Amino acid sequence: MKVEFKKIPQNGLDFKLKFDNIDFYGVAKKLDKDIVKATGTIKGSFIHCCDRCGEDFIKNIDQKFEIYASRGIYKNDEYLNVIEFFDDFIDFDRMLQSELESFKCDYLYCTECR
Ligand SMILES: [Zn+2]
C-alpha cells in the first residue's frame, strides 16, 4: 500500500494491511509537508528460527509502533525510527517490514529455550 505524502491529512488517515499472519494498522498524520507520523499496532505471528537451538517455532507479536516517514533525506534528529522515502510516496508495506525486522533483531527463543 502506497500513499502520496500530499494525500496524508493532518487529522489522520487510517491504514490497515496484512502480511502473512501479521496485521499492521493505525493512523498516519501529517506533521509538516515532509514528515508523517504513523502510530498503531503490529499484531500476529510468524515463523522464526530459535536463536538458541535453531528449531522453527511460532512467535507472536503484539505491540505498538511509532514510525516517522520522511519525504527525502531526514536531516534533523528530532525523531527516532524514521524511514526515508524518495519518490513522494509512503510505502506502508516497507514500514511493516521495517518494524518486523527490528522486532526480529532481538534474540528470540522458542518455548523450550526460554
Ligand atoms: Zn529453542
Structure description:
This protein has one domain (2-105). Helices cover 12% and strands 52% of the residues. It contains 1 helix and 7 strands. The chain has one helix spanning 92-105; strands at 2-4, 13-19, 22-32, 35-49, 56-71, 82-85, 89-91. A hairpin with a 6-residue loop joins strand 4 and strand 5. The longest helix has 14 residues, at 92-105. Bound molecules: zinc ion. Zinc ion (ZN) binds at residues 50, 52-53, 55, 109-110, 112-113.
- The CA-CA distance between the termini, in Å, is 36 Å
Task: Write out the strand line-up for the largest beta sheet, numbering strands in chain order.
Answer: 2-3-4-5-6
Radius of gyration: 16 Å
Order of helices and strands: EEEEEEEH
How many separate domains make up the residues? Answer: 1
The mean pLDDT is 96
The helix-and-strand class reads mainly beta
Largest sheet, strands/sense/barrel: 5 strands, mixed
Described by the principal axes of the CA atoms, the overall outline is elongated
Name the helicity range: 10-25%
Which spans have pLDDT < 50 for at least 5 consecutive residues?
none
